[in-house]
Amino acid sequence: MKVLVFIEQRDGKVKSSAYEALTVGARLAGSPADAAAVLVGADVASLASQMAGYGVDKVYTVSGAEFALYNAMGYSAAVEAAIKDFSPQVVVGVASPMGRDFFPRLAARMDAALLTDVIAVEWKDGALHGTKPMYSGKCRAHLVSQNCNLHMVTIRPNVMPAQKSASGAATASALPVAGASALMNTMKTLEIRKGKSEKADLTDAKLIISGGRAMANADNFKILHECADVIGATVGASRAAVDSGYATHDMQVGQTGKTVNPNLYIACGISGSIQHMAGMRTSKVIVAVNTDKDAPIFTIANYGIVGDLFKVVPVLTKKLNELVGH
Ligand SMILES: Cc1cc2nc3c(=O)[nH]c(=O)nc-3n(C[C@H](O)[C@H](O)[C@H](O)COP(=O)(O)OP(=O)(O)OC[C@H]3O[C@@H](n4cnc5c(N)ncnc54)[C@H](O)[C@@H]3O)c2cc1C
């Protein structure tokens, strides 16, 4: 079966979750000759070699100044061109903000079925099967994409690990895209303003320490930043902390914030509402610090500390400092 994988890059850096999508795509295809990837950006030809060993023989590169800033119109036209050239049965992407934005448009343009934000995917009996958490993670839906010529799927980041297979030449193949500029005139991206943080974005972060309403003010978040700096973690927040003005919206984890899947999630002064847990319950290891021993967060925590975060976090920072040898 032929599978095409969309590789997300920003500013010339391939997102780590793109390798997870590649791994899924290579597995579904079964052979590097049947798997291809597509990269879109200002000048992406040199990035293709980074896909070597991930089970794809061919990497379409769509380069041009008009693709420098992400634009749903242009990016879907570029991936459409790769679909027309490669004729895959399945297209794989990531349920990142970018994937969530343009895959529905692409699926509609190509008359394809689309499974979104899945945590497991397989090809069985001529159909694409996906598992998707729903209702804030309270249940899992089994979705089947069938009876169509083209199937699309976006995978949840940080769930299905990337694996190098040592096969796949990842030869770059420049792909011209006719009409993308005209399409992009209908909706232009004028500017993308980045957050100030140099840390990994929450959705990519392997380590996260988050604060809730109990942080009490924005200044107090500095104890979380100090701890995060020691281990290279990213700082997140509950909606209560964001709504109270203690943290910015891009830090919000949960149903109306970001969905995260780090190796370690430390929740400080967060009660564990269903809406917060919807965004972090699939974290590999969860540590909760809360003064209330009955706080719901403890029901999903692997390690719980009943205590005042203002006492616990500085001790944690000190111990981590000793461990990493600063
Ligand atoms: C439609 C909808 C969408 C929502 N989306 C989101 C979302 O995306 N993300 C999200 O987070 N919420 C979301 N919410 C809000 C959610 O329902 C909760 O109100 C919110 O998560 C509570 O945040 P919190 O845990 O920080 O605050 P609280 O629930 O007030 O909990 C604070 C916790 O801190 C503990 N505490 C107090 N002092 C200390 C201390 N010194 N040390 C340690 N612990 C202490 C308390 O025991 C308590 O458990 C949503 C709500 C709705 C209705």
Key features?
8 helices, seven-stranded parallel β-sheet, Rossmann fold, single chain, binds flavin-adenine dinucleotide, five-stranded parallel β-sheet, 26% strand, alpha/beta, 326 residues, globular
Describe the structure.
The chain folds into two domains: 3-186, HUPs (Rossmann fold, 3-Layer(aba) Sandwich), CATH 3.40.50; 207-324, TPP-binding domain (Rossmann fold, 3-Layer(aba) Sandwich). The protein contains eight helices and 17 strands. The protein has helices at residues 16-29, 72-86, 97-110, 180-186, 221-231, 239-243, 274-280, 309-324, and strands at 3-7, 9-10, 13-14, 35-41, 58-63, 90-94, 113-118, 120-124, 127-134, 139-145, 151-155, 171-174, 207-211, 234-237, 264-268, 285-290, 303-306. Helix 5 links the parallel strand 13 and strand 14 (234-237). Helix 2 packs antiparallel against helix 4.
Short description:
The chain is α/β, with parallel strands linked by helices and 326 residues long.
Provide the β-strand percentage band: 25-35%
CATH topology of the largest domain: Rossmann fold
Spatial arrangement of strands, main beta sheet? 7-11-6-1-4-5-12
Number of domains as seen in the coordinates: 2
- What do we call the CATH homologous superfamily of the largest domain? HUPs
CATH architecture assignment name of the largest domain = 3-Layer(aba) Sandwich
Principal-axis shape: globular
- Mean pLDDT over the residues: 93
